[in-house]
């Protein structure tokens, strides 16, 4: 069987699902040494554009990370291209679907790190936590000897979290190492269980924890996305929705599109209830950011929102949203 056939056979292939959600979304990452990563950018960018694929892919010495969306055939072509490279032959991806194209354009970027923690010499290929399959996750995090840590940022944890998990309330992943060092209580239990959206942050987070002397460190393989895909809702310990970095904003069990929208003023996810608030104005403010903004800010955002509305009338998408 060809590489394309192997990938295609793993795709969501129900005709009804494709009809209602025609765009396939593939989230992927892979830690591997890629000394020549700069040379991969242009061909990958062109291939994505030629196949109607949009999203963001990050390339660095340590590997690849990103999320892309497009027609099924386009995603198959891009994944086959990556799998054909020896470095990415073992690349895994997670799939979901979207009713609308969730990205504005395609960007392949060159980076120092594929996920930025800001700590040198952290290599998940050398030291990393123990992977736990979604089917075994509930038992681990229900163990009274386990501390469960959400490695995501505050705007992500605000709409969903595992039952009983510790929320570090970080603004960026760069804050996580200091949070660990300042929380001596993490040594009070023998087991540390960590999770994130798709698994990539936990690769570095668990490696960091191991280097800090924590011995029993575990992380959810495939992240929240894989858990929501595989674990039945009636058995789930997940509470809320999972923030995703595209225009769907959130997904729920079965990776169905959630009901959140994004406030384009503060970039935070907002609920249908928050949209009814007097402080909500599309593209200008929401109840989360209204009090921290000035009237000058809101005037500037209204001018931007006007450009967004004009672009919609022309059948275009404003690049700044």
From TrEMBL:
This is tRNA uridine(34) hydroxylase. Its EC number is 1.14.-.-. InterPro entries: Rhodanese-like_dom (IPR001763), Rhodanese-like_dom_sf (IPR036873), TrhO (IPR020936), TRHO_N (IPR040503). SMART domains: RHOD. Pfam families: Rhodanese, UPF0176_N. SUPFAM superfamilies: Rhodanese/Cell cycle control phosphatase. Residues 142-236 form the Rhodanese domain. Belongs to the TrhO family. One of its GO terms (molecular function) is oxidoreductase activity, acting on paired donors, with incorporation or reduction of molecular oxygen. It catalyses: uridine(34) in tRNA + AH2 + O2 = 5-hydroxyuridine(34) in tRNA + A + H2O. The lineage of its organism: Bacteria, Pseudomonadati, Pseudomonadota, Alphaproteobacteria, Hyphomicrobiales. GO terms for biological process: tRNA modification. Keywords: Oxidoreductase, tRNA processing. CDD domains: RHOD_YceA (cd01518). HAMAP family: TrhO. Gene3D superfamilies: 3.30.70.100, Rhodanese-like domain. The keyword tRNA processing applies. Catalyzes oxygen-dependent 5-hydroxyuridine (ho5U) modification at position 34 in tRNAs. It comes from Rhizobium metallidurans. Coiled coil: none annotated.
């Amino acid at each position: 069987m060809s590489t394309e056939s192997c990938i295609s056979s793993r795709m969501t292939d129900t005709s009804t699902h494709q009809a209602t959600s025609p765009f396939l979304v593939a989230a992927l990452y892979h830690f591997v040494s890629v000394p020549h990563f700069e040379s991969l950018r242009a061909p990958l960018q062109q291939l994505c554009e030629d196949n109607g694929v949009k999203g963001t892919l990050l390339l660095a010495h340590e590997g690849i990370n990103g999320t892309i969306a497009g027609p099924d055939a386009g995603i198959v072509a891009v994944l086959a291209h990556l799998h054909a490279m020896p470095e990415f032959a073992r690349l895994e991806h997670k799939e979901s679907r979207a009713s609308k194209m969730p990205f504005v354009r395609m960007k392949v970027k060159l980076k120092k790190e594929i996920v930025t923690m800001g700590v040198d010499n952290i290599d998940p290929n050398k030291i990393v936590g123990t992977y736990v399959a979604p089917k075994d996750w509930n038992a681990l995090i229900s163990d009274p000897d386990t501390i469960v840590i959400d490695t995501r940022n505050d705007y992500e944890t605000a709409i969903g979290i595992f039952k009983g998990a510790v929320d570090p309330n970080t603004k960026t992943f760069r804050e996580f190492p200091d949070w660990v060092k300042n929380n001596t209580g993490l040594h009070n239990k023998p087991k540390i269980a960590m999770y994130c959206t798709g698994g990539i942050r936990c690769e570095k987070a668990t490696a960091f924890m191991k280097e800090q002397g924590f011995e029993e460190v575990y992380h959810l393989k495939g992240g929240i996305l894989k858990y929501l895909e595989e674990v039945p809702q009636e058995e789930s310990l997940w509470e809320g929705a999972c923030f995703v970095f595209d225009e769907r904003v959130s997904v729920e069990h079965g990776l169905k599109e959630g009901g959140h929208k994004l406030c384009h003023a503060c970039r935070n996810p907002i609920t249908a209830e928050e949209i009814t608030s007097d402080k909500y104005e599309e593209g200008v403010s929401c109840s989360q950011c209204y009090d921290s903004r000035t009237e000058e800010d809101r005037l500037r955002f209204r001018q931007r929102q006007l450009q967004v509305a004009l672009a919609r009338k022309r059948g275009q998408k404003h690049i700044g949203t």
